[in-house]
Predict the structure.
Amino acid sequence: MPLHKYQFPMRDFLYLAPLQSFTDHHFRNAFQQVLGDVDRFYAPYLKMSNDGTIKSGPKIDILPANNPFETVVPQVMACNTADFLLMADYITDLGYTEINWNLGCPYPMVAKRDLGSGILDKPEKIIQIIETVLPNMNLKLGIKMRMGYESTEDILTLLPQLNAYPLTEIIVHARYGKQLYTGSCDHDRFEEIIPLCKHRLVYNGDIETVQDFQTLKKRFPTITDWMIGRGAIANPFLFEMIQENSPEFPMDWQTVFGEFLALLLDSHLQASSNDGNTLLKMKHYWEYFATGIEDGSFHYKRFKKIKTIAAYQNFISEFSEIEAE
Ligand SMILES: Cc1cc2nc3c(=O)[nH]c(=O)nc-3n(C[C@H](O)[C@H](O)[C@H](O)COP(=O)(O)O)c2cc1C
């Protein structure tokens, strides 16, 4: 029986996508202290090193001590059950209750080893891994995937098969792997898969503005769960603006942005004594902010002249002062 419209949740659920080197605990913690409207945070993926241990960066990132605010969902990238279960054990020991499986990473070095999106054209292998890991771990399982490797057609075979398993959700970045980040998302295909999926289906891909969100919401009225990555790094207020249904930045955005930048910087300074590296990290964020915040390219031009942490701290404090004037 179709659901009556009032049975749909009144608001949308918004998730911050995992972006390696960007949405680490420094970013997530700064975000959670001064910004809001995110329902779930996902940590960038854990993966194995060649020596059979879990790579240390992402391992440290999900330590409970590094995540004092809201819970994050840890993610793994694996194409065999042994690696998957080893990482699942580590995640369980840290107290987490859910794991997300990365079937989306597009990079050829990864994909050619059947990792990330490289496994999407081998549904039998995916199903075999799910059947082995589910009874052997104490974690709920969710999947984050692209729609295929060579084309978006792979998902048409895989998705109905996933209905047989108790998954928490399927997050779909509406591109195929070989596309990398080029071209556009395949919205026709996304529309086609909605009736094929009995799990909670989360849309992901190219939501950069409130207008983008509204357009997609109109096109996919039954979808209530949305994941946003690059758009939210470029504009950390995007979640709030979507929930407020307003294309305008919040009145106090400069103050909040200044606080956010200060928290992000402090967190990095505590973790590293290499000021050059810290400024480089900030530059990577600023390449995004340049495109998303008000007068972003103007601020980014000023940022590019900064050579010291002290100068950057002054630059940050000016954001609060803009508003006080
Ligand atoms: C620099 C970068 C790092 C990423 N790292 C991850 C990752 O660790 N795990 C993952 O599932 N997806 C990762 N992604 C993909 C994003 O989570 C997301 O699916 C993709 O960017 C599309 O969403 P967006 O258009 O909202 O950014 C990464 C993307 C970028 C650009």
Summary: The mean pLDDT is 95. Residues 253-324 form one domain.
